[in-house]
Amino acid sequence: MNGLHAAMKTSVAQASSSEVQDMINQTMTRLRSLRLSGMAEALALQQEQPGTYEGLSFEERLALLVDQEDADRSNKRLARLLRAARFKLSATLEDIDYEQPRGITKSQMATLVTCDWLRRKQNLLITGPCGTGKSWLSCAFGHGACLRGLSTRYFRTSRLLEAMGAIKSVPDMLGFPFFKALTLQKCSEQNSEKS
Q1: Which InterPro entries does its entry note (predicted)?
Q2: Could you tell me if 44 and 60 are in contact, meaning their C-beta atoms sit under 8 angstroms apart?
Q3: How many structural domains comprise the chain?
């Protein structure tokens, strides 16, 4: 057994620094072709700053690569969701000013912030006089939903009603299945009451 072990040790050749660099370059190219650009960037960073990572084990360095890939994908997904939502305003739930008289309490907000109402396929209708922050709140709720990985789409009421009216006969044109005339009528009545 010792003879076999000794023979295995001697058969392993030490790679030259140029061979190691070629292998790393090939690995980064393969990571990018596999669409693992976050891992490729993290590996490049590890190569640029060897002193920072030299004390880490292989497993720890691999974990850092995987963490970077996960973070990279999460950031890209969030950016994609926010772009698709087409928010009118840049608003976040963290920026809500509870001193403003909006008729909503912190406990109500705590319930709504979880976005459980979206998972239960419920709607959130925000009403109020002009200038009270309805658009701002809807953008903030939408941003919160995007942070939780949920797709959203911002519409002004008038544009939503126009779109719903245009698609009565084609209910999936907006990507929302089963819009019914009754729903359109209720939204129209709600909008008329405010005018």
Answers
A1: IstB_ATP-bd, P-loop_NTPase
A2: no
A3: 3
The predicted structure's pLDDT at residue 75 = 94
Token pair belonging to 149: 């990985």
> Does 5 map to a domain?
no
């950016």: which residue's tokens? 79
Residue 3 lies in a domain: no
Beta carbons within 8 Å of 165's beta carbon, 6+ residues apart: 184
10-residue mean pLDDT series, the chain (195 residues): 46 69 89 92 89 88 92 94 91 79 78 88 84 86 91 84 70 52 60 62
| Domain range enclosing 180 | 155-195
Are 143 and 91 part of one and the same domain?
A: yes
One domain for residues 171 and 137: no
Q: What is the pTM of this model?
A: 0.64
